[in-house]
Amino acid sequence: IRTYETLGFEDKLAQSLQRLRNVGGDAAMENADLQWLSAEAAQRAGENDKSTEQLLDFAKKFPGDKREPEALLRAAQNLKGLGQDAMALDLAAQAIEKAGDQTFRARGYLERAELLERQGKIEAAEREYENILQGTPDLMQVAVALHGLVRLSLAHHGLPATLFRLAAVAQGFDRFSAPL
Hey, is 67 helix, strand or coil? Predict the structure, then answer.
């Protein structure tokens, strides 16, 4: 099964997982690794409904697993694609809460910012972008968050307010400067 996954043979992986389910029943999916592989295979095959169900099942069955925040965030992304924004927002918040890594949290904040913006909740979306700017050490995430924040601020608050906001945000960038 792992060989099929490593080589990217999604159809063979799905067939093997299905055979395993047929032989071992639901008990076969009580293994965290197999459940994870099954969810990934469904996602790679474009079966977002199935993948979402399996990712949520994974998070429920294996709380505390290091992949739990990733499962929640991927489920949120799938639900966003399916137009289920309220549940996606909730799952992204859960992923942020369970994540121990600032870079991963930033992915959750970004997901929430995009969803909130889509719902027209501009101030809330701006706060999520600011959360990224305050915490992540990843410069690419900072760039994405700055772009989103500036775009929203210009569109909804105008240039002077955006410049003041950027000046305030820039004060927090000391963590990126290298000592001479």
Answer: coil
